[in-house]
Amino acid sequence: MQPSLKFNPRSPAKKSRGSASPIAGTENAQVIVLGVVLAVFQQWCGINVIFNYAEEIFRAAGYDISSVLKNIAWTGSVNLAFTLSRWAWWTAPEGDR
Predict the structure, then answer these.
(1) DSSP structural state of residue 2
(2) Confidence (pTM)
């Protein structure tokens, strides 16, 4: 049975201590599990893989250690530049675009 959410102006206000029950209920469990699974998969793909395994990737491509470090720095710099440019475009007022 679902609790009633109707407002009754005559009932005294009850102070609640806060509870995790709204998110821990069985009706929300599937949504929470789906969110966690998607977050985990997001970490396993895309640019995160490049940054986490950059040394192994560049070494397997035949680069020496100094070239590996340069390539990691370039990859990070390009990622930062595009992130900042996208952020600047997104936050600019509509007329400035």
Answers:
(1) P
(2) 0.45
The span from the CA of 45 to the CA of 54, in Å, is 13
pLDDT tens column, 23-81: 666 678 888 889 899 888 877 777 777 788 888 988 999 999 888 889 889 988 998 99
Q: Does any domain span residue 8? A: no
User: How many Cα atoms are found within 13 Å in the side-chain-facing hemisphere of 72?
Assistant: 18
Q: Give a yes or no: residue 3 inside a domain.
A: no
* Burial track 3-33 (b if 16+ CB lie within 10 A, e otherwise): eeeeeeeeeeeeeeeeeeeeeeeeeeeeeee
